[in-house]
Design brief:
The complex is a heterodimer of chains A (580) and B (98). Chain A is an alpha/beta fold and 580 residues long. Chain A has a 20-stranded parallel β-sheet. The N terminus of chain A is likely disordered. Chain B is α+β, with helices and mostly antiparallel strands. Helix content of chain B is 47%, strand content 13%. Chain B has a 3-stranded mixed β-sheet. In chain B, strand 1 and strand 2 form a beta hairpin. The radius of gyration of chain B is 13 Å and the shape is globular. The chains are: A alpha/beta (580), B alpha+beta (98). At the A-B interface, helix 3 of A face helix 4 and helix 5 of B.
Chain lengths: 580, 98
């Protein structure tokens, strides 16, 4: 800490790629998806203790944030320190339009206010007062309008701007920032007002490396303005269903492109031919595009391609022999296509594959033999395929496999011992009705498992004895109906559990809640459709990290949970049943 | 206590704080001064002058050093900071890499 430089933009970018969503600390969305991906700073790590002695610098910064009303200006202190105070205020959600004023003219470099409550045009004056020092601003999810963007005109050194989910910004706003030619990164996700007309502003941003226009439905015809942006490396046009083959043409000369995402667009094989010259392209996302195997001719020219997403493209076996041309691929997603067993032989030579998704394809047991040589495979999706127990023998040598999804397959207890040697496995999805206690017994050697999904499996109290081998479990789902409180005794010592789903086990009582009251890492708990009553809620008071609690179909009302939240579980943000 | 185990920290006003070397070296800056071979006069004399740090603040810093040692040995108490000192203390902490 201390004098360390505060330039962290690059780090942040990488992080966003690695753990998408994690940086969205103040997600407004009502979706519960974030529970799985983004665990915002838990209350405990702010407290002192936990072994590490806090530096005096940290203590002072926290103290300043606590007494923020005492300070009128930080403009006299070094900018790296005011940056740290600013960050801590945002982190602790203490920054308001009033306390913001103390940061006028502080020459701060990074203002990350993504999803921060209350940000609007009135904040822009102080934001822009950082002047030429300002390098990056994240205002995603704010109320900022075109008028607010006017302020940024003089922040000529800006490198990165993020206006995701700012639905009050339009073409006029783009025009106002068109002079910021040092920009390397620009993001306008989910904007309905940006059109081809406004996008002419992009033509001036000749230093752009990364442009994100995900879910902008009116941008058709505007990509022509990107033609001269020769430094562009990453272009995200996911879910812009207005994008057609014509929009691909201007991209053909962007030879520095490394990542292109055009999923759910109208681009066909004809459009893909324009990408042939993109020799540096390593990531191509064509999910849900109406392409056929005919586009593989164009794609096989892309020697740098490592990641190819062809999920939901209606591909058939026609032309699938061309898969063998993608020898360098590390990640291949073929899920939800009409392809069958006949394709698998053409995947045999893709020995660099680390991830293969065949979800819902018509794949059976025999030809899985073609996967035995894919020794680098870490992740394999076979959900909703016709794979059964006899196919699993072909997987038993995939020693690097970390994640295997066999949900809704024909696999049964007899086949599971074939998996017992996969000692790298961390995540196993066996949401399969015909799996029972016997099958679970065959897996006890997989002690590295962190995620185990037995949602529909017929696990009873007897089977739960085997769970004691999985001491590292972070998430567990057993919802087959066969558990009673007795079985939960074998779950209560899985002390790393963050997600536990025991719903549909209709015999579970309040005793279950008492048993799990020591699982203090729990972030999400579901015991719906059981005999839990409001009297049992008191056992949950110890679970301070809990963010989501689902007790549908129990004798528990929304106001019972609300009361628990207000007295004991301040982090609880989502619960069912909800208040009517 | 041997003299070489102690170090003298001198404030802007000339106040001298004689404290354990172990405590002083909680500060990365002081640690560097006292351990880098030959380059600092401080290394030889076990004396460091801080013309920018007032007596009040230096005293508080010394208290922090000892608090830090206690904390590290398992006694996890809170370190009190007076609101009127916070800003100046923070600047000193920044300088001292503490």
């Amino acid at each position: 800490m201390g004098g360390a430089c505060s330039r962290k933009s690059d780090q942040r970018d990488n992080e966003e790629i690695l753990h998408r969503g994690v940086s969205r600390k103040y997600c407004k969305s009502g979706s519960s998806k974030w529970l799985a991906t983004s665990f915002s700073r838990p209350a405990i790590d702010i407290q002192l203790g936990r072994g590490n002695c806090p530096p005096l610098m940290d203590l002072c910064i926290r103290k300043i944030c606590e007494d923020i009303d005492r300070y009128n200006t930080f403009s006299k202190i070094p900018r790296d320190i005011s940056q740290q105070i600013f960050n801590e205020l945002v982190y602790s959600q203490r920054l308001t339009d009033v306390s913001l004023k103390a940061f006028r003219d502080c020459a701060i470099q990074d203002l990350y206010l993504g999803e921060y409550p209350g940000v609007n045009d009135s904040w822009m004056d102080v934001i822009s007062s950082q002047g030429p020092s300002l390098l990056s601003v994240d205002l995603s999810g704010s109320e900022v309008t075109d008028t607010g963007l006017l302020h940024l005109k003089d922040c000529t050194n800006l490198l990165a701007l993020n206006f995701d989910y700012c639905d009050q910004i339009s073409d006029r706003g783009l025009e106002l920032i068109s002079g910021l030619s040092n920009l390397t990164s620009l993001s306008f996700r989910r904007n309905n007002a940006i059109t081809a007309k406004g996008m002419s502003a992009f033509a001036n941003l000749v230093n752009l490396v990364k442009l994100d226009l995900e879910r902008c439905p009116e941008i058709h015809g505007g990509l022509i303005n990107l033609k001269g942006l020769s430094k562009l490396e990453s272009l995200n046009l996911k879910c812009c269903n207005c994008i057609t083959n014509d929009d691909m043409k201007p991209l053909s000369g962007l030879t520095n492109l490394k990542a292109l995402q055009i999923s759910c667009s109208k681009v066909t094989d004809v459009g893909i031919t324009f990408l042939k010259g993109l020799h540096k392209l390593s990531l191509l996302n064509l999910e849900g595009c109406p392409v056929t195997a005919a586009c593989f001719d164009s794609l096989s020219a892309l020697a740098a391609l490592l990641y190819l997403n062809l999920n939901r493209c209606n591909l058939t076996d026609d032309g699938c022999e061309n898969f063998s041309r993608f020898r360098n691929l590390k990640v291949l997603n073929l899920g939800f296509n009409e392809i069958t067993d006949a394709c698998l032989v053409h995947l045999k030579g893709l020995t660099n594959l680390e991830s293969l998704n065949l979800d819902s394809c018509r794949i059976g047991d025999e030809r899985l033999v073609n996967l035995t040589g894919l020794r680098h495979l870490k992740c394999l999706e076979l959900s909703d395929t016709e794979v059964g127990s006899s196919g699993l023998r072909h997987l038993s040598g995939l020693a690097n496999l970390e994640s295997l999804n066999l949900s809704f397959t024909a696999v049964d207890d007899g086949g599971l011992r074939k998996l017992s040697g996969l000692s790298s496995l961390k995540s196993l999805n066996l949401d399969v009705r015909q799996i029972s206690d016997v099958g679970l017994a065959a897996l006890t050697s997989l002690t590295g498992l962190t995620h185990l999904d037995l949602f529909g499996a017929r696990i009873t109290d007897v089977g739960t004895n085997h769970l004691r081998n999985f001491k590292n479990l972070r998430s567990l789902e057993i919802c087959g109906g066969g558990l009673t409180d007795t079985g939960v005794k074998n779950i209560k010592n899985l002390s790393y559990l963050r997600l536990l789903n025991l719903s549909q086990n209709s015999n579970l009582t309040d005793k279950t809640l008492e048993l799990i009251s020591g699982l203090t890492e729990l972030v999400s708990l579901n015991v719906s459709n059981s005999r839990i009553t409001s009297a049992g809620l008191r056992h949950l008071k110890t679970l301070k990290n809990m963010k989501s609690l689902t007790l549908e179909g129990c004798k528990v009302t929304a106001s019972d949970i609300k009361r628990l939240q207000s007295t004991d579980l301040p982090n609880l943000a989502f619960w069912m049943p909800q208040l009517k | 206590m041997k003299k070489e185990d102690m170090v003298k920290l001198i404030s802007a006003e000339g106040f001298e704080f004689v404290i354990d070397k172990d405590a002083a070296m909680v500060s990365q800056t002081i640690y560097n001064m006292l351990t880098s071979p030959g380059s600092f006069a401080e290394t030889q004399h076990g004396e460091v002058t801080f013309p920018e740090i007032s007596t009040t603040i230096l005293e508080k810093i010394c208290k922090y050093f000892y608090w830090h040692l206690q904390f590290a040995s398992g006694k996890e108490t809170e370190f009190p900071i007076e609101p009127e000192l916070t800003l100046e203390l923070m600047m000193a902490a920044n300088y001292l890499h503490t």
